[in-house]
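Let's inspect one such protein example.
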Amino acid sequence: MNDEIIKKCGEQLYKALRTRQCIKPLTETYPEITIDDAYKVSQYLNKLRLADGERVIGKKIGVTSKAVMDMLKVGQPDFGFLTDKMVFSEGGDVPITGQLIQPKAEGEVAFILKQDLLGPGVTAADVLAATDFVMAAIEVVDSRIEDWRIKIQDTIADNASCGVFVLGDRAVNPRDVDLATCGMVVEKNGAIISTGAGAAALNSPVNCVVWLANTLGKYGIALKAGEVIMSGSLVPLEPVKAGDSMRVSIGGIGSVSARFV
């Protein structure tokens, strides 16, 4: 795809984001779109958001668990950018009605970095050394593509289907918890709806951050000190609407809750 088509795709997704009106899958409109093309679209979309006053505060890995891969019929991870307009605090109201289109929530482990990471060659030991602390988190993903009819190129171009995210209020040293075996329980409106473990995401959330650092390194993008890194869901996606509440508890790390309005 040439630069003009990439810009056009980015502008279509940006308009869909701001107007909350979905577009047809890019893979239908532009069947020739490649994964590299899609990442170029994502970066152009991010450029438009920054020009509108948003600020990058982290990155996210998407589609890391088999449950989510099967649900979305997408066979590999992807990444997106997190901005200051996406983050909300533990226990507060999360405005999805006027901000998102077709939201689905999931439980994750968030990594907060104290050192930069730039691939290639990043290892699990590097990730642990560069991490200040981990927290329980809820990510609410959203798609600007009609009816979530996405292929991997569609979700990549759409900033890895980023919506908003909520961070817990407990910070834990990642070396004090076994991130591969930590268990997760997700409750919606007071009822348990799913359970998972760290190994559900590429065998450990640490491996997800390794994948992200090395993949971003191919594009000359670093994970930076102070950034939030969302490491991917350990459980299936759950549709949410205004009036719902969600609580995610992770063994050894803590919990996070949100009310959707």
Q: What stands out?
A: The two ends are 39 Å apart (CA to CA). Residues 14 and 49 are 8 Å apart (CA to CA).
